[in-house]
Amino acid sequence: MTAPKDYEFYIVDGTIIDERTDSETRVYGQIRGDGMHGHSSVSGNINSETIKSQQFWLKQNNGKEIHIDLDTYTIPLRSGHDVIMVFVDNYTIPSLLYIKNTEKLYTLYNKIEKFKSSCILSILAIIISIAFGMACASSGNVYRPGDNVGTGIFFGFLFFIGQCIAYAIIIDKKYKKKNETIMNRAEAILRKHISGK
User: What integer pLDDT is reported at residue 52 of this predicted model?
Assistant: First the structure.
């Protein structure tokens, strides 16, 4: 299976001349205090999350220097490492990064194909659900709700939720497969570049 034709792959290689890894700790939570008849109590929870980010300057083989920001991705890099990166389309984070010195390959940004909700399909699902609900409300043959409009709306809502879940599962598999195909293509291009063929 080939990658979609509308994607372009770019190779950038060179030597890292400066690297920086930052970390930020975010603290969040709630604390409650109660006081009655001279007694007080404090309860709640506090959580913390440390987010790391990494960036570096790369001197390309053509002599030009570029700045690369890996955002929240972090990998063991240092100044002097020779790297090869594969970018897909206009994404600023490389999809693949290969360190020549350690012969290690890292997968970074691999969600090129993102979930795109279809307005037409969503509207169609709503229309079908409304029709189904009305059928439930007006026909004694469907779940036998009689003339109970509330029951019909309820079954229509359940039907709509079922459609949404099925739609999400199908679309998720579709985009996972596309991303897998794109990343396989990116890796093939990288391996070809490494071998010099």
Answer: 85
